[in-house]
Amino acid sequence: LWFQRALQAGETPDARAYYAMLSACAQVADIEAADEVAAQMRSNGISEDVVSHTALINACAAAGNMKEAEHRLEAMLAADVKPNAFTTNAMTSACGRAGQPQEAERWFSRLARQGAQVEIVGFNSLLKAWADSDPWRIRVWFRRMDAAGVKPDVISFNMLINSAALMLDKSMARKAWFRMLKVNLRPTLGSYRSLAKALARDGDYEELSKLLEKMRASGRSRDAFCERAFISACANANPKASDEAEEAFRYSYELLKEDRYAQT
Length: 264
Fold this sequence. Notes:
The protein has 16 helices and no strands. It is mainly α and 264 residues long. The longest helix is centred in the C-terminal third of the chain and has 14 residues. The mean pLDDT is 91.
């Protein structure tokens, strides 16, 4: 609304104003509006650069339109605009949202060859692209991230721990957890949930109990997912820890009473 009023009043927005409008369009996945802003930008003599092109790709990514994102990126490269780390993130996100992690890998590698900086934001988008289809690839790309000298953040570690849980690899999940702590990254709720999942699937209710104690000691509120994971761990233990499961359910009743998963 402000942008339209400014134009109607005869004001000429500068590049920063156009960037802000393009970013707003991207956030609401409005490709058509982003195109209109870009066209107005060109008509006012402001050349499109990596920021504006990346914003258009982000709009396509938010809309889940990988093909349109590819079209915009090809146009950007044809205009001899050098991609940056945010361009890589936008394109890999577009591929991931479209359920095409192989394409995310292809674009990640291609943009790196064309000079885009390889940073944590792009790696995390690539890890996320594989999260629902092939957890093994997360481990592969985590190693490549290490080889590239890029330091993983807590988001990276959360996805690595979760991938280990999906592969029933408790040892790998624990290694990732302790490595994360060693580099002084504070676990998020997602971190606790991912490790809880790994321990639950292995039936290690004793270690999971200690994890929940540490979680509460850190000041975090009790979490239904983690409490449910403890009950699952008791069920998966050999022999089953029935008494511990019943006690945990009674203790967590108020938290889990509406949770149909905990009662099955």
